[in-house]
Amino acid sequence: MKFLDLKDIAERDIELVNPTSAEKILAIGRLAGMAPGKTLIDFGCGYAEPLVLWAESYGISGLGIDIREKAVQRARAKITRLGLAERLEIVHGSGADYSFEPGSFDYAACVGASFIWGGFRSALDAMQRAIRPDGKMIVGEVYWLKETVPHELAQAQSEFHSEAWLLRAAREAGFDVQYVVRASHDDWDRYEAGNWDGLLRWIEENPAHPERQQVIDHLHESQDEYFTYGREYFGWGLYLLNPVRYR
Ligand SMILES: C[S@@+](CC[C@H](N)C(=O)[O-])C[C@H]1O[C@@H](n2cnc3c(N)ncnc32)[C@H](O)[C@@H]1O
To answer: Which protein residue's CA is at the shortest distance from atom 27 of ligand 1?
Structure first.
């Protein structure tokens, strides 16, 4: 079973696929100045929950891209059900390959999917091409809570950085951090436990599935890592990035 198939199972009842909340997604949209008529491109949009929240509350129009067929189907069904199909569109494919008109969006978002381009720094360069010169970017990113991390954990999560590193990378890419909304322990617990709940229910419902053991192993490995290290070492923030105007 591929990793993204495991995500389909784990996220069966999850709409927001990150350690955050609807309130925090809305807060960053408000701080970004979202308003009717503004446009946004969301890379790795998942079930389009951030897009839906911003469209319903602030009236933006948007385009979401996700590589996972099932996520795209769920996102499209939700958008239709909520009557947002005239303003929100979901494209199936890789965010790295999607070709957009450069400089055509007011906002570019990537909430928990910078791995699309191999990490935070390259994500900023790719996303930057989508926005107007005065456009803003919203990036949800994991970071180390501590400067020193156990060797085996640093190896397992080699794409993580400290928050000071994220700040430097944002400035290097030509952005000031305008705002940050961080994950609380409760946000992390809700997200991680939501995944375990989805996995456990699938395991119960599929006693004879040939790949059941892989799903059980995935559940246990994810719990081992979170209970051993999560609370002490994992941070997550939603960063609002503004093109640098002051030096
Ligand atoms: C952690 S989830 C975040 C989903 C959404 N942004 C949210 O906050 O609810 C990451 C998403 O990136 C998608 N993804 C993975 N690789 C991708 C790629 N190359 N292009 C586009 N989406 C991708 C996954 O299918 C998944 O839905």
So the answer is: 46
Distance 90 CA to ligand 1 centre (A): 12
Q: Is the CB of 116 under 6 A from ligand 1?
A: yes
Provide the 10 A C-beta neighbour count for residue 209.
13
53 touches ligand 1 (CB under 6 Å): no
Q: How confident is the model at residue 247 (pLDDT cuts 50, 70, 90)?
A: confident
Q: Where are the alpha helices (DSSP H) in 21-68?
A: 22-31, 49-58
Please tell me the distance from the alpha carbon of residue 135 to that of residue 103, in angstroms, as a whole number: 8
Q: How long is the chain? A: 247
Mean pLDDT of the residues in the chain? 97
Interval between CA 39 and ligand 1 midpoint (Å): 20
Cα 242 from Cα 133, distance rounded (Å): 10
Pocket test for ligand 1, best of 41, 47, 67 (most atoms within 8 A of CB): 67
Q: What is the pLDDT of residue 244?
A: 84
In tens, the pLDDT along 120-151 reads 999 999 999 999 999 999 999 999 999 999 99
pTM equals: 0.97
Interval 208-233: pLDDT, tens:
999 999 999 999 999 999 999 999 99
Q: What domains are defined for the chain?
A: 15-184+234-243 (3.40.50.150)
Which residue's CA is minimally distant from atom 12 of ligand 1?
A: 44
